[in-house]
């Protein structure tokens, strides 16, 4: 397994192009299964998770062509309505092929995604929504067997709590349903509006995406489209936090400040000098350490759980004490003991971590446990004195495009050691 060797203590200066959002790309890719016409997606990041979903879509019969960041998908016919365990277990977003297959073919057999390192992550809300839309669902030997021989029908769905995946899955399935579907307490993450924009370009009739109530009027068929995936707000926030930890100045091209929600104000509050420019964000830290600030993760527009680990890394060298409360996932502090190996002072009590900022971290061998935790260790390593060896970096390749290259271009001493 590859490792990253990082020698820290150097400020970052330069320009980093922000890639398309992984968590949007994976959903608009699943939308390709809803039509027999080709769809062209632009600004798609080259990531291990995208490759994995491509393999699954090919297995369902889609032709795929990935050229630079432009991805063409054409599911002229559906060759198989089964999504096997091996392709779904490695990446949860694969589960979202269930709704499109069911809507188009009237049946699907999709492996349950299972839990993952950050929490149990059940799919009960996804299945309840599909059941309300008339699907018959059985669970057998780890697979979801779903049938809707006469097609799905519109339904009134009210989620008991906000779920990004269940909101997206319901939208995907409802496009071809008979009648109108309303989704109450829908997730408001920017990726939801991006998916709706893509589906509407395919001929769907979705309104309200980005708000708490979404209405989907079912149509008979969808057609091809061109769609540009929105910029990755988590990659954007992570590089902003890296500057907070190391000092320096970065221009993040292609980034959009509107997508950062509460994180923008938090980054200002800790003392970063940030400016939204035309199609870019400039971030600068002058000399002083950042100020410690408390955060609570919340659904959008609150502070995103996907930036919590990176923010904790930044707070380890901030001036003061910060409390970080994680409310979305039950086991998302695995980076804390790894950061402690580098001299961070963190105590975890249930869902709250208290971080006492120190002047400086010291390089150490550490282990990446999940995607965002990996980025948290990279940020800490960039700021630390001496060398850090980050083991198990395959998690990073799932979600951060050309990470070493982007950081090297801004003066970071970071090198991949292939094993
Ligand atoms: C998406 O996961 C993202 N993944 C996650 O990013 C992100 O952390 C999360 O949304 C929250 O913003 C993708 O988009 C591929 P949820 P998702 O359904 O859709 C519980 C990353 O690092 N829940 O909003 O799976 C669930 O267990 C990843 O890029 C149920 O109980 O998240 C969690 O506690 C990690 N039953 C909470 O809801 C359900 O049926 C929110 O999860 C569905 C969810």
Tell me what the structure shows.
- By secondary structure, this protein is of the alpha/beta class.
- It folds into 2 domains: 3-19 and 231-417, Alpha-beta prism (UDP-n-acetylglucosamine1-carboxyvinyl-transferase, Chain), CATH 3.65.10.10; 22-228, Alpha-beta prism (UDP-n-acetylglucosamine1-carboxyvinyl-transferase, Chain).
- It has helices spanning 22-31, 48-59, 85-88, 98-105, 124-132, 164-174, 190-201, 233-246, 262-269, 308-315, 335-341, 371-383, 394-399, 403-408; strands at 3-7, 12-17, 39-42, 63-67, 70-74, 82-83, 107-111, 136-140, 143-147, 156-158, 180-184, 205-207, 214-217, 225-228, 248-253, 273-277, 280-285, 295-296, 321-325, 345-349, 352-356, 365-367, 387-391, 413-417.
- A 4-stranded mixed β-sheet has the order 22-23-1-24. Strands 2-15-17-16 form a 4-stranded mixed β-sheet, with helices on one face. Strands 4-5-3-14 form a 4-stranded mixed β-sheet.
- A hairpin with a 2-residue loop joins strand 4 (63-67) and strand 5 (70-74).
- Helix 1 (22-31) runs parallel beside helix 7 (190-201) and helix 6 runs parallel beside helix 7 (190-201).
- The longest helix is centred in the middle third of the chain and has 14 residues, at 233-246.
- The mean pLDDT is 96.
- The structure holds ligand EPZ.
- The site of ligand EPZ has 23 residues, from helix 1, helix 5, helix 6 and helix 12.
Give the tags.
24 strands; 2 domains; UDP-n-acetylglucosamine1-carboxyvinyl-transferase, Chain; 4-stranded mixed beta sheet; 31% helix; 419 residues; single chain; binds ligand EPZ; alpha/beta
């Amino acid at each position: 397994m590859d490792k990253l060797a990082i020698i820290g203590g150097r400020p970052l200066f330069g320009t980093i192009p922000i890639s398309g959002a992984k968590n949007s790309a994976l959903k608009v890719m699943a939308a390709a299964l809803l039509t027999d016409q080709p769809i062209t997606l632009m600004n798609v990041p080259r990531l291990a998770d995208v490759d994995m979903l491509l393999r699954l879509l090919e297995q369902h019969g889609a032709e795929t062509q990935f050229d630079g960041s432009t991805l063409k998908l054409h599911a002229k016919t559906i060759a198989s309505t089964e999504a096997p365990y091996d392709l779904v277990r490695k990446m949860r977003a694969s589960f979202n092929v269930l709704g499109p297959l069911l809507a188009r073919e009237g049946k699907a057999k999709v492996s349950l995604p299972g839990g993952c390192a950050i929490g149990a992550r059940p799919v009960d809300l996804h299945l309840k929504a599909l059941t309300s839309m008339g699907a018959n669902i059985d669970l057998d030997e780890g697979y979801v067997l779903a049938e809707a021989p006469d097609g799905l029908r519109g339904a009134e769905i009210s989620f008991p709590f906000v779920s990004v995946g269940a909101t997206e899955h319901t939208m995907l399935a409802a496009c071809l349903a008979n009648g109108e579907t309303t989704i109450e307490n829908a997730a408001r993450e920017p990726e939801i509006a991006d998916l709706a924009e893509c589906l509407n370009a395919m001929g769907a009739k979705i309104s309200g995406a980005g708000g708490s109530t979404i209405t989907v009027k079912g149509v008979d068929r969808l057609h091809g489209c061109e769609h540009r995936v929105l910029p990755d707000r988590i990659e954007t926030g992570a590089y902003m936090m890296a500057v907070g930890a190391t000092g320096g100045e970065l221009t993040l091209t292609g980034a959009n400040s509107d997508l950062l929600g509460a994180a923008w104000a938090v980054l200002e509050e800790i003392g970063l000098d940030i400016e939204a420019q035309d199609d870019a964000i400039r971030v600068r830290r002058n000399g002083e350490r950042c100020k410690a600030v408390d955060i609570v993760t919340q659904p959008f527009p609150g502070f995103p759980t996907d930036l919590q680990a990176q923010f904790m890394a930044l707070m380890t060298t901030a001036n003061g004490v910060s409390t970080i409360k994680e409310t979305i996932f039950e086991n998302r502090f695995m980076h804390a003991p790894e950061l402690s190996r580098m001299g961070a002072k963190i105590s975890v009590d249930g869902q709250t971590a208290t971080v006492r900022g120190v002047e400086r971290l010291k390089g150490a061998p550490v282990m990446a446990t999940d995607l965002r935790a990996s980025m948290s260790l990279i940020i800490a390593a960039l700021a630390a004195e001496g060398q850090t060896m980050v083991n198990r970096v395959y998690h990073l390749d799932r979600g951060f495009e050309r990470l070493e290259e982007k950081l090297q271009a801004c003066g970071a001493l970071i090198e991949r050691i292939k094993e």
